[in-house]
Each structure stands twice: as C-alpha cells, then as structure tokens.
C-alpha cells in the first residue's frame, strides 16, 4: 500500500526483474487488481514508491550504499518527463528518482565524501531532501549545500539524469545541461585508501567534441579556460573523492 500525496491510499503492485533492471508499476483504481491505471516503462530496482497522481509525479527511491552508484543509472533513460505512461489514456507523467535523504553536515562522512554525496545527487537530478540539523551544521557543509553551481546542475530545466561513461575504481558520469550542447561532468574515485590519482583525458572522452568549450570547476568555481575536443583535461581526485566541471559551448 502506498499513499498518494493528494489522492490518498493507492494500491500498488511491483513486478521486479533485478537482473534486467526492469520494474513494472501497476496502480489500481476502483476496479481493483484487474484494472491497472499506470505502468512504468523501465525503472530499475526500488525500495520506496511515492505517488502524486494529480500532479503526475512519481518518485522512486533506490537503496544507498557507497558502491551502488553503478546500479542507479538503470533508470536514467526514463528519468524526467514521460517516465510513466497511462494504459488507459496514453498520457505520460514525470518519473523522478529519489536517492533518499542527504546527510551532508552529519557525522560519518569526510569532506571529500560529502562532496561525492551531494555532487552525485546533483548529477542524478534527484530531489534534495536534507536530513541534518540546520541549526548546528558546520560552515563547510553549509557552503556545499548552497553552492549555486551544484544547485544549477541539479535544477537544470532539462531534468536529465546523468549517465556513466566509465565504471570501476574511477567512475565518470556526464549530464546534459543548458545551454544546448553543455554537460556537467563528475569523476569519482571509489578506492578507500592510498593516495590521490591524476586523471588525464581529452575533452572528447566526455562526449564533448563539437567545437570549443568553456570549462568551470564546480565546487570552487575555478575558471578552467577554453578548450577543444583534443585538449587534455588534467586534475587530481582523492580516495572516495570527486572532481566536477561544467563545459559550455563557445559561440
């Protein structure tokens, strides 16, 4: 049983194929179990379903562990407008992946891990729901949560969820943003010990191969200058850390 934010209790059946990353969500109206109203196209594994049928919004919350970044992109093709389709009317509504609460500012994460936590929530265009005490949050964590460059990535009007282009110890994620042809890039180093690594890829590795781009580092706002697809972009990433930049076409 799930509760609609405006519609009240709504019965819901989940049919999950975790290997294929497919979840069918059948909501049932007055006709009961034999009268499905909605079905998802493909959503990945889920642990929580929150429906607002009147507003046409569905949030799906995936389980979080440090190394589960690789599972979340199963839903990326259906995140945003058109994620669900009505079996009765053919109309679509919005599917939003809810990665659960943000605990930046609590105990347990290093400063680097807090950046990964919040940075990836922004790459995934996930709801930003805080689970901390804003009366006593430290200044460093507060600055991270109100970082305008990160919030712009999360709230980008395209509403597109980021996708991985490389997995493993060094994960690389890209998210299309506005203006057209721009991307936000996140590079995560998942190894939990040792020293930092240096990452060196040409800009075209990130799918940025159409002319010149202006790059900006996201966390501190450093201007990285103008580059083309052959430019080698070099930076360091700490263990369990992240590096993020945005690339916008130069007209």
TrEMBL record:
Gene Ontology cellular component annotations, sorted alphabetically: cytoplasm
Entry keyword annotation includes Hydrolase: yes
Pfam families for this protein: Melibiase_2, Melibiase_C
Domain Alpha galactosidase C-terminal residues, every copy: 168-246
Annotated GO MF terms: alpha-galactosidase activity
Keyword Amino-acid biosynthesis: no
Enzyme class: hydrolase
Keywords noted in UniProt: Glycosidase, Hydrolase, Signal
EC number: 3.2.1.22
GO biological process: glycoside catabolic process; oligosaccharide metabolic process
Catalytic activity: Hydrolysis of terminal, non-reducing alpha-D-galactose residues in alpha-D-galactosides, including galactose oligosaccharides, galactomannans and galactolipids
Signal peptide per UniProt: none
Family the entry assigns: Belongs to the glycosyl hydrolase 27 family.
Protein name: alpha-galactosidase
